[in-house]
Amino acid sequence: MARSRLSVWVLAARPKTLAAAVAPVIVGTAMAAAADGMHVAAAGVAMIGAILIQIGTNFCNDYCDYLKGADTEDRVGPTRAVQAGLVTPDAMRAATCLVFGLAVMACIYLVYRAGWPMVIIGALSIFCGIAYTAGPKPLAYVGLGDLFVLVFFGPVAVGGTYYVQALSLPPEVIVAGFAPGLISVGLLTVNNLRDVDQDRVAGKRTLVVRLGPAFARTQYGVAITLACLLPLGLYLWTGRGPVAVATVALLGVAIPAIRTVRKENAGSALNGALVQTARLLILYCVVFSVGWLI
Prior knowledge:
Helix content is 74%, strand content 0%. The protein contains 13 helices and no strands.
């Protein structure tokens, strides 16, 4: 059955991955609101910018992984638009430039609102989104993808969202940002575990390829557990957010995904774990944010 042009581009944007972009903005905005520093326009533009950077990164990944041979007809994960012949490489490259260009426009307002720190955050976010799979030594191909995700989908995104609204940055905001970053690392870990054989053949040296599936399974469980426990540490440290400690209960929600990652090797099963982890990320951020505001 032929796909419509719109559905092809929605597929290429990978909507299920957008939780990683949305979640830290929710957390940063909730913490700004709790400090009486919420700025609605800045929050909205930060959300738009984060989503655009994520989509641009996905488009760039689709294009570059095809050129580097990491996406082939043997792929077990979701369809990639260029590899499947749904979008030409030239069209995907143009779309990548367009989306990142729109992200730059969003960043211009944030720079106007909050000054030069947003120049650094915006420039680094876009650069790393491109460098994730582009260039002679892409981050994802040398085992640095996990660190990139932890930092930029964690404290950078949460801290940047908070700063552009409240125009200050207390240390507890940075610490809180590690939780969505850790769950996003969990997402990447499942993705790389599913694709380990194909990545090894393509020379994509992810941490799973370098250190093995057993490491990946342990990393996933540790990342999810630390994320759910982090608000408890924040409460013990600052005395704030006692209700946000409810995130500890989400460990029960995470158990099915943790078990799947520990036991399964099939792509279909791990794709299910990806969906469960994305849902956990959004659920975590809602529970934490509501709890921090109460």
